[in-house]
Known about the structure:
About 25% of the residues lie in helices and about 15% in strands. The protein has helices spanning about 20-25, 80-95, 110-115, 155-160, 195-200, 220-230, and strands at about 5-10, 10-15, 50-55, 60, 75, 135, 140-145, 165-170, 175-180, 205-210. The model has no long low-confidence stretch (mean pLDDT about 95).
Amino acid sequence: MAAKTLTIDGQMVGAAEDQTILEAARDAGIPIPTLCHLDGLDSVGACRLCLVEIAGSHKLQPACVTVVAEGMEVRTNTERLQKYRRLILELLLAERNHICSVCVANGHCELQRLAAAHGIDHVRYGYQCPKLEVDVTHPIFGLDHSRCVLCMRCVRVCWYIEGAGTKNVSGRGSGSRIIDDLCQPWGESETCTSCGKCVHACPTGALFYKGATVAEMERDRGKLEFIVRAREKKQWIV
């Protein structure tokens, strides 16, 4: 496979021709923030936190779905990008009810960690404070819509790794919700295999193990990537 040479934040980087800017940057030890991206899942560019500047283009491009090109000059941490990322994070925090002090994922939350990394100590926008339910009809897991950021990790892992197709998205804009099957309670789903992959994929406290209390919800992201890589290498085929 042909290699491409590009510049990321002034550093010369080599990458395979099918790699994205995000993959090339991480291989070179250059951090780019993400929320919807998860190794082992196809990227969809939903959260827009990984936007980068590319020389010659006035548009900001999502690093997770933009493929590298020869001679590309990329900047990942300009003042303009920092402004957009803070804006996105503040809007996410204002849209639903992210109260860290009573969340099962407190201290293990990617949204919380990104907000701290970007210096967000207050939100400039009015909180919407929607009244959203918590679905605890499943015998093992729970779904708290107040914590959901609609990254669709749970949807993608359910469809493309587990192959169950239980989870999906219903509605538009701020009215969007994660649903199970035909918008029925999770515990009544006929397709859910109770594998727990969606829970491990969730970046916040939206999906959790029932019985978990504040700050107890830790996740093992490596399991998902291991499953995908093992399938690609056909390690489980006899």
